[in-house]
Amino acid sequence: MAELKALRVELNLGIEENGFEMHSSFLCNDSINEITTEIEALDSDFPKHGIRNAEKKLSSVRNLVESDLLLEKARIYLTGKPEVVRVIVFDKTADKNWLVTWHQDKTISVSDKKEVDGWGPWTLKDGVHHVQPKLNVLEEMVTFRIHLDDANESNGCLKVIPKSHKLGILSKNEQDRIVAESEAYICSAKSGDLLVMRPHLLHSSSKGTEPNHRRIVHIEYSSFQLPIGLAWT
């Protein structure tokens, strides 16, 4: 119990020290309802559990991503003008109840494929080029996870390893060792809460034991100036 209490005290140090922060009641109910209503209105065969490029497919998400509310928030964590890197809507449900192993988000999505020293490998997801850049690019990024539903251990909320963003880009063996030696923090949240994190913070999520809607709008911003010939998507 003493160790858990010490961890909670350390969390007050914020994103630069721990790699993440929680903000309660960030998004109002009207905005939440607007997004969930548009999601539910999609065709029944639409893959609602994982909507990539969501700002291009859902007007309510586009309005949120481009809002002063989010852009002003992103400026707090970045050194320059926030640019949208990637937007995904996740919904973990009883029939799409997945496990995500411990990992770092190490790729960015860009407009074209171009050889850049130290960048790679390249992949294509939903028609968009993705690449793993150097660490300095990830350090000029911030991830917002906006909860449209309550999230807890029973429906598979996020878990993180505090301070792991300070360790750079890690190999799989290094990740496994750090996880084994560390205490995970369970990112329980209420509908409307915001989780702010660095993308290369170690994180995972378990399958829900009592799965229901666990809808998240996942948004990545960056102020990094991309090489000539590339643009954020």
UniProtKB/TrEMBL annotation:
InterPro entries: Phytyl_CoA_dOase-like. The keyword Transcription does not apply. Transmembrane segments: none annotated. It holds the Pfam family PhyH. Gene3D superfamilies: q2cbj1_9rhob like domain (2.60.120.620). Its cofactor is Fe(2+). One of its GO terms (molecular function) is dioxygenase activity. Keywords: Dioxygenase, Oxidoreductase. This is Phytanoyl-CoA dioxygenase. It comes from Methylophaga thalassica.
